[in-house]
Amino acid sequence: MACYFFIAIPIILVSIWLGGRNIQLEAVGTKQRFDWIGLVLLSWVFVSLSVAFANAGNNGFYSLSFFSLLAIFIVGIIALFVHYHFSEKKILNFSLLLRPIIGLRWLNFFILQFINIGISFVLPILAQDYLNTEPFIAGLILLPGSLLGAAIAPLAGRLYDRRGIFLPLTIANVSMFLGCWLFYFGTPILSISSMILIYVFLRVGFNFGFGNTLSDASRQVTIEEKADINSLFNTFQQYAGSIGTSVLSAIISSVQLRQDAASGLLTAQGSQIDFVLLAILAGIGLLTVFISQRLKRRYTSMKSST
């Protein structure tokens, strides 16, 4: 496996060399200084929460160490809030989230990525431990859904351009909601083929909403704020995937700590808890769609009346 990384190194070096020779862009100066304190505090928040759930996977959710790390996370949140309130330098423009439509889109964006990466982590483990599938086959379970999801992305963008954001986001969140419940109720009779079909359904729905969520949020800001909202959403896109795998793996690991049944059965039970959690999050995502649609209609009626 390590040889693949060594093969990639010359490709990366050649790419850097070609870019340095052919891309000549003059740096645009700025008087704004980088927010190093904000970076440290944001890293504190992200890392402490991830480590807390990793610790829960090893020691359980009722362990003192888990609650201690959660306390450290809360202290980090408070410190970041105080720094953001009083400092002129800001690592991310969190004030954009105070605008209702943008805040709701951000939450939906985070939830969609959390479910997408999280369930992509759970399914191969479930296939290996519960269905006794070979690791190679377990990994291939995700391939059809990933390919069809990517193929549907242009259609999703076209639907957004023609019909607005409500329909594609509704399709996305309903698909995620139903897909998670299908996995939950279908776990006792799950097979490789049914797992592939449900994941295809779920992943196609994901691609209807994920890219369009950021696109619609970007329409709610000025040109000067485009970079801020992109950096904000991209940062939490990466963290949604990271914390998603941390939380879901911690749940499965904490169930396996009981050791009162076969390992495969405990993995299935932990996975079912994961599916319920993801279904609840998908329901929250769907709720944000309806709330934002109602807010948009209210704003439109207020503008027309004036």
From TrEMBL:
Membrane topology of the entry: Multi-pass membrane protein
Taxonomic superkingdom: Bacteria
MF terms (GO), sorted A to Z: transmembrane transporter activity
GO cellular component: plasma membrane
Membrane-traversing stretches: 6-24, 36-56, 62-86, 106-127, 133-153, 275-295
Keywords: Membrane, Transmembrane, Transmembrane helix, Transport
Record Pfam families: MFS_1
Protein name: Major facilitator superfamily permease
Species lineage: Bacteria, Bacillati, Bacillota, Bacilli, Lactobacillales
